[in-house]
Amino acid sequence: MFGGKIGAPEIILILVVIILLFGAKKLPDMARSLGKSARILKSEAKAMKEEGKTSTQASGSTEQSSSQRTIQAAPGDVSSSRPVNEPTDSAQR
Q1: What does the pLDDT look like over 16-31, one tens digit per residue?
Q2: Max intra-chain CA distance, the chain
Q3: How does pLDDT run across 74-86, given as a tens digit for each residue?
Q4: Contact between residue 87 and residue 93 where contact means Cβ atoms under 8 Å apart
Q5: What is the dihedral of CA 22, 28, 29, 30, to 10 degrees?
Q6: Which helix (H) or strand (E) holds 83?
Q7: Tens digits of per-residue pLDDT, 7-16?
Q8: What is the DSSP string of 10-76?
Q9: What is the rounded CA–CA span in Å between residue 78 and residue 60?
Q10: pTM of the full predicted structure?
């Protein structure tokens, strides 16, 4: 019934439909927004990995301070960085 191969004509048809649906003016903005979201997600994943490493090292100590870190947005986008208070232990809330 349907072929499993997607060739150049099918990809071109899909792109034409996307351009017709969203309009050529909005596509660069959508791509820019998607790229910014991907960079933020990547930086957050890296921060979570680093936080996991430091929390396993600090788990032996009984004293934990409430630290504040700043989430950085995409390079050049200084308007959306903000400090974030994170709870150190969910039982202390």
Answers
A1: 998 888 887 888 888 8
A2: 65
A3: 666 655 555 556 6
A4: yes
A5: 60
A6: strand 82-85
A7: 889 999 998 9
A8: HHHHHHHHHHHHH-TTTHHHHHHHHHHHHHHHHHHHHHHHHHHHHHHHHTT-S-----EEEE--STT
A9: 37
A10: 0.40
- Residue 36 backbone zone (phi > 0: left; psi -120 to 50: alpha; other: beta): alpha
Question: Which residues have C-beta within 8 Å of that of residue 79, sequence separation ≥ 6?
Answer: 73
CA separation for the pair 13, 11 (Å, rounded): 5
Bridge partners (DSSP) listed for residue 84: 69
Q: CA–CA separation, 62 vs 48, rounded Å? A: 21
39 touches 72 (CB < 8 A): no
Place of tokens 């969910």: 90
